[in-house]
Structure formats: C-alpha cells, structure tokens
C-alpha cells in the first residue's frame, strides 16, 4: 500500500488515482496525514478489508511531505562506509544521531531556496515508525515500521561545520532542505525492504548510486539502538544516512547552484524532482 499527503489530506494511492481516506472510511479516520500513525494497525486492517473506492486523478505538484509533522526526527550520519571514506572520516559502529527540524520539510516537487554557501545533496531512505517502540530487539524491529519513503538531507556545509563542534542540525534545516515523498510504501510492497537501490541525479548526471544493504547500521539495528535509549513514537521518521557521491567528497568539491534540478530515486518508491531557486 502507498499512502500520501495530497494537498494536506491523507490519501491511498491506487495506480494513477488518489483515494481520500476520510471520505472512503466514512469519517472513521481523519484527513490529517500525520494522525494515522497513532492508529496504524487499525488503519491497516480497515484498508485491507475496505471495498474498492474510485479515486481522483492528481499531479505530483499536489503532493506534500507524507509525514508533515512527526514529533521526533532522527538523522544518521556516516552510515555508509564509502561515504565516510570520501569525506575523510571513519564510519562508526555506534550510530551518529542528529535531527532535521520539521520546518525544513518539503514535498517531492518543492522548490528549494538557495541560502548561499555550499549546498550539497544526500539521498536517504526514510523510515516511518508505526508503533511505540521501546527496547525493541533487532529481530523484531521491522514490526514497528509503518513504511518507507525517500528524503534528501540537503546540507549547507559552511553552516554545518561552523563553530567548535559541527552544527549538523542547523546546516541541514534551512527551508525546504528536507524534501520527502512522494509517498510512503508499506514494507510488504518490496521484494526485500532491507536492500533497495537509491540515487541522486543533478542536471541529468548521476552523482550518487548505492544500495541500502550497504548501510553500516541497518534499519533494524537503528530501531533497536534508538529504542534502547528513548521511546520511538508513531509517526516518527528516521533519515538513515547517505551513500558516497556527495559534492563535499568530490575533488574539487561541487555544490548545488540556482537553477539546478535535483532528482532523487529509490527503488520501489519512485522519484522526487526539486529545483534549486534563488533564496529570499
């Protein structure tokens, strides 16, 4: 199943059409795209047993972040060995965790204002939590996953590295620096949700190409590790890290400019297309 945020309303994507959940459920479930995760098992049961409903055609420009306001956002740094190597660092077996502020969330076709500085790309698989998780065993972790989507962890490197210690969260949270989408796909839709291809393309040139099976800490390991320390809440999101191919790692470094087209693709999910525009 694929669910999305269509102009602020929760929908199920059926082919090229969108089915409004509030209308189809007779008001049983809210139109709020974020609220559904509090009742995720109930929603899955309803969706599996509901009669087919005619949807409406839609355009990609109507899609907004599929999880628009999670209570907690986790982002993982240096979670691919090749990415750590390209920036001159060593991948850590202990997950490096920061956040991306929700005000940076944007839809899959949103324009990204360029704030100046060195703006970089980072394709990431994004995990959406479907049940409260505390002290979860790694073997059980996928039971707590509502679905997968994609995101760009866009980063302004000068801000990120300013100060005595890195400012990861600030450098990665300018407006529209967290485009997500185009929808959330439940794990059963994948041949193997632990191993999917992901890539970044800038102006038609492939910059990143990797597989999630190459992560240092897998999705299951991340959920187990985080839930040992804190409670993961329904609707929380985890940006799981990026493979090699970021602009910072190139020689010389290459960064995004106004007018660039940033295309993000993940196997089994789809693609996003974001344009870099002049900042305001």
TrEMBL record:
GO terms for molecular function: hydrolase activity. It holds the Pfam family FAA_hydrolase. The keyword Transferase does not apply. SUPFAM superfamilies: FAH (SSF56529). Keywords: Hydrolase, Metal-binding. Residues 73-277 form the Fumarylacetoacetase-like C-terminal domain. PANTHER family: ACYLPYRUVASE, FUMARYLACETOACETATE HYDROLASE FAMILY PROTEIN (AFU_ORTHOLOGUE AFUA_1G02370)-RELATED. This is Fumarylacetoacetate hydrolase. It comes from Naasia aerilata.
């Amino acid at each position: 199943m694929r669910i999305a945020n269509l102009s602020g309303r929760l929908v199920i994507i059926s082919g090229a059409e969108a089915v409004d959940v509030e209308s189809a459920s007779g008001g049983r479930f809210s139109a709020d795209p974020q609220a559904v995760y509090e009742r995720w098992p109930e929603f899955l049961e309803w969706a599996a047993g509901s009669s087919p409903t005619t949807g409406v055609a839609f355009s990609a420009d109507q899609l907004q972040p599929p999880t628009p306001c999670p209570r907690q956002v986790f982002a993982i740094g240096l979670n691919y060995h090749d990415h750590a190597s390209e920036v001159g660092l060593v991948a850590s077996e202990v997950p490096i965790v920061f956040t991306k502020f929700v005000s940076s969330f944007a839809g899959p076709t949103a324009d990204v204002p360029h704030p100046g500085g060195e703006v970089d790309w980072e394709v990431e698989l994004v995990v959406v939590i479907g049940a409260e998780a505390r002290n979860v065993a790694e073997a059980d972790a996928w039971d707590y996953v509502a679905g997968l989507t994609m995101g760009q962890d866009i980063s302004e490197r000068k801000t990120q590295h300013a100060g005595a210690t890195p400012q990861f969260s600030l450098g990665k949270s300018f407006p529209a620096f967290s485009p997500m989408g185009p929808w959330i796909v439940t794990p059963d839709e994948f041949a193997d949700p632990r191993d999917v291809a992901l890539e970044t393309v800038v102006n038609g040139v492939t910059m990143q190409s990797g597989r999630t099976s190459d992560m240092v800490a897998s999705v299951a390991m991340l959920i187990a590790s985080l839930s040992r320390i804190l409670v993961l809440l329904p609707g929380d999101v985890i940006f799981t890290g990026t493979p090699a191919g970021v602009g910072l790692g190139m020689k010389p470094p290459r960064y995004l400019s106004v007018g660039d087209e940033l295309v993000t693709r993940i196997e089994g999910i789809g693609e996003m297309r974001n344009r870099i525009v002049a900042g305001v």
